[in-house]
Amino acid sequence: MAHLQAGRLGSIDMKIEDDPRTDPRIAETIALDNMPIRVAPNTSEPIEKLLEYSNQIEQDWGLHHDLEWEKMPKFEQIETKQQIIEGIDGNEITLHIHRPAKQTGTLPAVVHTHGGGMTIMSAEDPSYVRWRSLLASQNLVVIGVEFRNAGGKLGASPFPAGLNDCASATQWTFDNKSQLNVSSIIISGESGGGNLSIATALKAKKENWLNQINGVYACCPYISGSYENKPSELVSLTENDDYLINCNQMAVLAHLYDPNGENATNPLAWPYHSTEEDLHGLPPHFIWTNELDPLRDEGIAFYRKLLGAGVAVSGQTALGTCHAAETIFPDVIPEITSSLAASIARFAKSFSA
User: Fold this and answer.
1) What digits encode the pLDDT tens for the residues 333-353?
2) Residue 207: how many other CB atoms lie within 10 Å
3) pTM passes above 0.70
4) Distances from the Cα of 306 to the Cαs of 27, 80, 223, 350, in angstroms?
5) Residue pLDDT, tens place only, 252-288
6) What is the mean pLDDT of residues 57-66?
7) Which of 31, 138, 198, 284 allows an S-S link to 17, with CB 3.0 to 4.6 Å?
8) Cα of 227 vs its chain's centroid, Å
9) Distances (CA, A) of 199 to 57, 185, 280
10) Tally of CB atoms within 10 A around 229
11) Helix axes 161-175, 192-206, angle to 10 degrees
12) What is the rounded CA–CA span in Å between residue 288 and residue 99?
């Protein structure tokens, strides 16, 4: 009997809710979802049209915000506050700090860089508020960065604006370790935030402040920028295309991040293109990927690059899950969400032992 290829490699019309690999709970949730289907414009369209599209899909993702706020756990043991700092470009950056209300002693810090392809979404979105509180409940101090986006309501500020803001937030955290009562610092984010967490470490190495970062935990990182040509080595871009997110959509966001294409192979913009020399000497990394994510293979490929460069790195793939399922569907797959939060906490605490 012939072995059928996975996902859309085996059937071009395959949908994630029909894929036998999909966690049935996720399949049911996605099948019932009524989010508008928007066809992405071609990246050759005027920049104004691409920005309009980024605004539309940001609003589409926001359709569930009221329900997400309703389902938000109380997190009564967590206290939150905002801190406004000045970035290296002279702009104001809002940091959202979540920590245990009854903290005793120093705790590890997690600088959190949210998802959205560096182009849409906000640290104030309920899924990210919930995620920071969940991490803080693991006895961590979590600093969420409201960085400038390349599109959406917080745009339009292309590369390197968002990266500069994440670097500023990380350096501020280091400079205020005593005030924050933190012992070590890791950077963690998902999707576009996974890109920014890795890129911040690469930037720190280039600028000689790498000693301020103890580790990087990147989830489902959006790091290749290769969403129009879908290189053959990144099979998942075809296998899982249009499974919650799609390559045409990602190509638009990538184009807004680097409108002139000048940084297509710049590791600070797209860490997938890092050389061994770029990576050598980086702090320990953890790469978490999702089996049914178009971005799965670029995350795995980057894991192998880190290994080749002698960087201490661990990796894990969450089977049956779509892109960023842990933060998007915390009530649907609670044990997988908890597993990721616990993994990040173990990683962060390993530097404070």
Assistant:
1) 999 999 999 999 999 999 986
2) 11
3) yes
4) 33, 35, 14, 19
5) 999 999 999 999 999 999 999 999 999 999 999 999 9
6) 95
7) 31
8) 17
9) 25, 15, 14
10) 11
11) 70
12) 24
The one-letter amino acid at 17? E
Taking the alpha carbons at both ends of the chain, their separation in whole angstroms is 53
Length of the chain counted residue by residue: 353
Which residues partner with 111 through β-bridges? Answer: 143, 187
For residue 324, report the phi and psi dihedrals to the nearest 5 degrees. 55, 30
Q: Tokens at residue 271, please? A: 């860490």
With a cut of 90, say whether residue 3 has pLDDT above it. Answer: no
160 upstream amide cis, omega within 30 of 0: yes
Cβ pair 241, 298 in contact under 8 A: no
DSSP string, 237-274: HHHTTTBSB-HHHHHHHHHHHSTT-TTTT-TTT-GGG-
Collapsed DSSP state (helix, strand, coil) of residue 206: helix
Q: State the residue for tokens 């939060």.
A: 341
Q: How far apart are CA 80 and CA 3, in angstroms?
A: 52
